[in-house]
Amino acid sequence: xxxxxxxxxxxxxxxxxxxxxxGAAIVGVADLGPLKAGLKTDPPDLMQPYNVAVSIxxxxxxxxxxxxxxxxxxxxxxDCRDLNARxxxxxxxxVRRIESLGYRAEAVPASKKLVEGGTEGSIxxxxxxxxxxxxxxxxxxxxxxxxxxxxxRLSSVLTDMPLKVDAPVKxxxxxxxxxxxxxxxxxxxxxxxxxxxxxxxxxxxxxxCHRNTFRYMEVPGVGYTFCGQCIPVCPHGRMLMxxxxxxxx
Length: 249
Hints:
By secondary structure, the chain is an alpha+beta fold. The chain contains 9 helices and 6 strands; from the N terminus they run H-E-H-E-H-H-E-H-E-E-E-H-H-H-H. The chain is globular, with a radius of gyration of 18 Å.
C-alpha cells in the first residue's frame, strides 16, 4: 500500500467524526504501547504492526437491560448480537477509510472475547477502551462509561495511522457495591482499582462466573453465555436507562 507522506492536521478529528457518522456513540484512540507488554492476543503478534487502536462503543437497548430480573432475557441476548453485527459493520467501514488514506488497519470482530482460561478471542476490546478513555474498568470487570455506565458493547480497529491518543479516565466506582450484590454467582470480589486490575481474578472469581454463565445457554431464546445481571444496577447511566425504558419521566 502506498502511504501518503503528509499528515493532515485534523486527521484524528476527521476519523472520530467518521466513526460518529457511521453510527458509533463513543469514540476514543488508545495507545497500544503500554498494552503490548502484557495484553494477551491471538495471534501473539497481533498488535505488532500497529501503534494505536480506535475504540468504539454502542449503547445497549435500555428497555431490554432494565427488564432483566435474575437472568438474561431473549431481548437482551438478541440486542447484544444485533449490536455486535452493527459494530462489525462500523469497524469495517473505518478500516476502508483508513486504508484509503494510505495506512494499515485491522478490524477486530466485536463478538470475540479473551479471558483467562476461557473464551476464545483475538484481543480485549475492554482493555483498549480503557486505554482510549471511553470509561474505566469497574469492579465487575466491565467497562463503565460516564453516560451509559456498563450498558455498552465494544469493538476496535488497530492501525498505524498517526492519531492523537486519548488519556484513560479515573475510576469512579468508589465504595459502591451494587454489582457485587447483584451477581448471582457471588463472583465479584468488591475490589476497587485506580486504573486496571493486575489480573482478572483479582476482581472476579472467574470459575464461579463461568459456571453461572454457562447455565444460561439453556435459557430459551438466550442460547449463549450471557449473564449481565450487574449491568442494570450500576448507578452510572442508570437514570438514562430508566428514562429510555419509560420507567421514570
